[in-house]
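Moderator note: this is an archived Q&A kept for reference. The question asked for a predicted structure of one protein chain; the sequence and the answer are reproduced below.
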Amino acid sequence: MLEATNMDLFYGASQALQKVSVCAKKGEITCILGRNGVGKTSIARALTGRHPLRSGAIVWEGRDIVNLSAADRAGAGIAYVPQGREIFSQLTVLENLKTGFAVLPRRQRKIQDEIYDLFPVLRTMLHRRGGDLSGGQQQQLAIARALVMQPRLLILDEPTEGIQPSIIKDIHNVISILRQQGEMAVLLVEQYFEFAKNLADAYVVMDRGIAVMAGRISEMDEAQVKSWLMV
């Protein structure tokens, strides 16, 4: 569904990505692994249109989207859960969820029951402000908000960061369910190796803006991957 090739991305004079390629397939989870500061989030920002590429191609469902805005990519079915969650702290949980309506036709602007089935805690907190939720609850809200958009590609940037173990397990289960449904591709940016290994079908390992390893999880050399993740 998504194929990005030879992506070069700069922040000013500093090159963050160098000839990076990544793909994501419907019904599969692709994980971007690496230490902090190696370009993982830059990949997410490039794919979602939050930062322009210097060069390279991004093809989504057979369409070149490299020149599309972030809003247009969202409208094309690409949802992004950013690192740090970025929920609206002054809005209620329900109002946060409804911000996902922006990319949907009016007739489809309904929060599906499945959202509350995946995140039952949100059903009990609909009228609480987002800023009053715990970090783990905010992460669940951020993922739910993205799912309200009915995406065909879900990009998750460090969903386990700063989250208590019980909610990490809940998030793991939700991502597994989404894969089993087979209706979307998932791109998971993560540095928690065990979490990624247990979920992913394919992986890319980043170091200093370069993709140094890539392949199928079933064929992964765990020791070599872990060596790239060590500080």
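Archived answer notes: The radius of gyration is 17 Å.
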